[in-house]
Amino acid sequence: MSIFSYLSNPKIRKQQIKDLFFITFGIFLYAFGYTAFILPEKVVMGGVSGISALLYYAFHFSPGVCIWVLNILMLLIALKTLTKQFIFRTIIGVTIISVFIGILQPFFEAFPIITPGEDKFMHVLIGAALIGAALGIVFSHNGSTGGTDIIVAMLNKYFRLSFGRAMQFIDITIICSSYILFHSVETIVYGIAFTLIASYVCDYVINGTRQTVQFIIISKEYEKIADVIMNKIDRGVTVLEGKGWYSKSGVKLLIVLTRKYESQDVFYIIKNIDPNALVSQTFCHGVFGEGFDKIK
Is the Cα dihedral 189, 117, 106, 196 positive or negative? Predict the structure, then answer.
């Protein structure tokens, strides 16, 4: 199938429009949290947005312009190590976020919705939750907001660096550098708190809605349990042959994948059929296929 016929497919086109809508909405949410809650409280976050905030606090440079310029400079530095698709998505995402910040930042300066310093932790909490949710929405729909992950991606190609640790190191360095400007440990603490909250919310938005549970069930009443799970919960059951090493006797293992909200129903079924069954429960970040999420 050629790229043109791929893009002309109605389902593909519909998915692209849906992705674009949610990416734009997520970026707007990011800009709203950044300009309404973070900038007024003079909190320094990680990434390019944190560097742009520092430049704004120190020299009153426009945060929107700084974010766009810094991201383009990093793309030029890492040009040879990045894919064309990543570069294209990053330029689109960075341009949209810069426009939104450029519009909202002067608006909230003229019409603030919070009083800086009145309840700083609550404002940081709200801003972090909004920005974390925004990033989760953007990433869930194959978008990119650029940032220092461009440099990490480049370094990761030439050096054996853990992506997560490299990102943490860069973010902590940017946050700690705020001490040079504010001479305040409290500002660093707020910046770290922001990063932790935003990361948690981002992970929850990406994985929380599709969190699934895997059961491994060992029971002599495996046939009854399997039948009831299939009929009552409408979930498939896989039966595996096993052997108890202590008893040296054969056993049957049931493997069941369910949504998180269905897990209590599975326990109820097992308890009523065989209270002595051995049950292992594991949380999965995502299961893809029939009855679950589609692979994007």
Answer: positive
- Reduced to 3 states (helix: H, G, I; strand: E, B; else coil), residue 44 is coil
Say what the pLDDT of residue 14 is: 77
Asked whether the CA dihedral 227, 232, 236, 242 is positive or negative, the reply is negative
pLDDT higher than threshold 90 for residue 176: yes
DSSP letters spanning 139-196: HHTT----STHHHHHHHHHHS---HHHHHHHHHHHHHHTHHHHH--HHHHHHHHHHHH
Q: Which of 16, 12, 56, 13 is closest to 38 using CA atoms? A: 56
Distance CA 40, CA 42 (A): 6
pLDDT of residue 246: 85
Q: How far apart are CA 202 and CA 207, in angstroms?
A: 9
Contact 146, 135 (CB under 8 A): no
For 170-176, which contacts have Cβ atoms below 8 Å and span 24 or more sequence positions?
170/46, 170/47, 171/45, 171/46, 171/47, 171/50, 171/195, 172/46, 174/44, 174/45, 174/46, 174/47, 174/50, 174/51, 174/54, 174/148, 175/44, 175/45, 175/46, 175/50
Residues contacting residue 293 through CB under 8 Å, at least 6 positions apart = 210, 286, 287
pLDDT in tens, 216-264: 999 999 999 999 999 988 888 999 999 888 888 889 999 999 887 788 8
Q: How confident is the model at residue 136 (pLDDT cuts 50, 70, 90)?
A: confident
- DSSP annotation of 22: H
Q: How do 212-218 and 250-259 pair as beta strands?
A: antiparallel
Residue 49 · residue 198 · CB < 8 Å: no
User: Within 10 Å of residue 64's Cβ, how many Cβ atoms?
Assistant: 23
Share of the chain above pLDDT 90, in %: 50
CA distances from 25 to 35, 215, 220 (A): 15, 37, 52
